[in-house]
Please model this.
Amino acid sequence: MSKNWSQIIRELKPYVPGEQPKDKLFIKLNTNENPYPPSPKVIDAIRKKTDASLRRYPDPNCEALKQAIAEYYSVKKDTVFVGNGSDEVLALSFISFFKQPQPILFPDISYSFYEVYCSLFEIQSIRIPLVEDMGISLVEYEQPNGGIIFPNPNAPTGKLLSLDSIEKLLKQNGGSVVIVDEAYIDFGGDTAIALIDKYQNLLVTQTFSKSRSLAGLRVGAALGSEALIQGLERAKNSFNSYPLDRLAIAGAVEAIRDEAYFQSTCKKVMETRERTVVALSKMGFSIVPSMANFVFIKPTGIQAKELYVRLKDEKILVRYFDKPRIDAYLRVTIGTDADMQTFIEKTAQIVAAA
Ligand SMILES: *Cc1c(COP(=O)(O)O)cnc(C)c1O
Model:
């Protein structure tokens, strides 16, 4: 604490990211990174751009990347916004659309950055409790609001909402902006991008960090009506003209283009997820049905926190949230088959000894 801190900074509770140990010996199942490397074409494209042109600023409008994303989703380039990770895209979206007289709505158990942005930007919110089976009940969002945001699939539960239920909400909620945070949509869900033409107040955000194995490059995107995208551009151009550097633009373009590689790594993660679910069910753990690259599990025979600590001793990192309602659970990122085999074996040993 310093007397120089503004009141907002004094009162903030910043987001705490999962641990990133320096020690390479850990099996890292705690931050939902992809266990597979980026496409070799991505690495190649970044290498090729590592030259004297780095003395120049990058394209402030990231036209090449917007074009690649627009082609991939068959939408107009003017419906695409890009930023330095989807966290930045989300922050700019909160500023652009959610500073309203009415509070915004989001699930009580969800991505914890939403409440951080609310305190940073002084936005009021109402947190809507998840229903019994850890699901989001979108009917409860049909009330006056200054905006709505939820991840689909939700984090840290992994539960997916159907496009039908999202469209039903959009029909009811014509006024404020609805943001669907699709950080994990590529692991088995249907994107709401199909609805952006029809609903001018829908914004869909995505990231290259998970399904495209590029958490280290920091690239995120938003897709929505041209009017929403122009709003985001105004916010971006009042904050940072060059959120994506030359290397990030080049790498992200290739990540979008290498469809075959993307499909094959997503498929492997989904198959490993199903095998992990089978093994954990056999051990009697309860598992929230997941359409993401992680599973939210409730151990039996041991407390979640205890299991987290013991796994860490065994050099396996998973995510434990010391928060009411979810402190009996662990969030486990899907790694390679070998990672998950080790995780299952060690977990079985720890539970047997508990
Ligand atoms: C990981 C994640 C993000 C942020 O992704 P970055 O692009 O790495 O900033 C956004 N939303 C949710 C729900 C996430 O899990």
Notes: The chain has a mean pLDDT of 96. The two ends are 41 Å apart (CA to CA). The domain at 40-257 is CATH 3.40.640.10 (Aspartate Aminotransferase; domain 2). The chain has two domains: 17-37+260-353, 40-257.
